């Protein structure tokens, strides 16, 4: 008996109000991402033999968008009345115009993912399939507002229950999460389950979700496969799209071409980075990133000369064993904090002129020519590089120092805290005109709220009246926490998804 024909249905009757409210004028499915509209990313996941339906409201689409869907993207449009009842309601409303004797993929319009479709075909003998991702995902940091799957205890590849907008445990990155793409073998069952959801008024956040129809399939004895994909991204809210585009800029930025001609870069890497032990047993500076130790990966993306390393004997031995050639300043003992590193290195820093002081776990994107022109014009004693928080960094505000800025001058530094939503973050590197300011380190007051860092020194410099300029980065990458490191590695490992065909 031949397999039923395959169809794709995309419920697309929502107005995309969050994007409208954020100032986007284009209807969300047609926002250009990597050179093509958002919905095309979904359509590209399916081969030509899958028939494509889009369920929408005529008033949401312009004539040009209708033509693009029908003619360029080979979609059949099903128009329904406008509503705010959710995607499962759209499926039920479109029932009379769908070939229900056949099988259906269901997908949201605001996702992208990668899979091997031949492996997908192999799973289509089940009553249903939920396509999932399991493990770290940057958009799940401090956020379990998604659809999570509980596998069957006796058969972990099959679904027991799916739950919308809530996880089953506090360790939700270990749970299979629905990526927003599904398969159901029987179109009649898809519509019957959707209607049952509506009749029972089974809403989540005021809407009916197609994910929940798979609970009804399992309740009726059906088998629903959980099939994992290696990568997915959801662009459901503007912040997620902006974050995706941010990471595209970052991972596609080539190493700095400055070489030995650039300004001096003195890089501190004397600490052990204890909070990174869950990532690697290596000292933080030596954790590998695409074949390079972390400190070198960051230094290569900094518009400066090859770094001079301030380090300690244990790390120096590793550097020498690895045949690293950077100039080293080896302190006599292991330091207890970044501030302690500066205290020990102060005699070496004093007397240095016009140099960057950087760390092993951070880099930023900025225009070096513009920076040098700004410094020449404003003549500051020092520069604090600042940044506007990313999606993840906003969730981790207490991990970062923030500053108050007035007319490009830093007037206060709030170490590992934030006083106002308008405060930019303090990046992990600085520029110093005259290293003699480090004679002042002995005057820095002790800080009773945790490990002292370089930020404490610059808070003191600002309080003492030094002219400390703020210079905002185009993008900032901090790798000093497990969450931020894993976020960076996720996007770097999946950089191929940013390609424009």
From TrEMBL:
Note whether Transferase occurs among the keywords: yes
Give me the segments passing through the membrane: none
Recall the GO molecular function terms of this protein's record.
nucleotidyltransferase activity
What's this protein's name?
MobA-like NTP transferase domain-containing protein
Q: What are the residue boundaries of the MobA-like NTP transferase domain, all occurrences included? A: 9-151, 269-387
Q: Please give the Pfam families that the UniProt record associates with this protein.
A: NTP_transf_3
Q: Which SUPFAM superfamilies match?
A: Nucleotide-diphospho-sugar transferases
The alphabetized UniProt keywords are:
Magnesium, Nucleotidyltransferase, Transferase
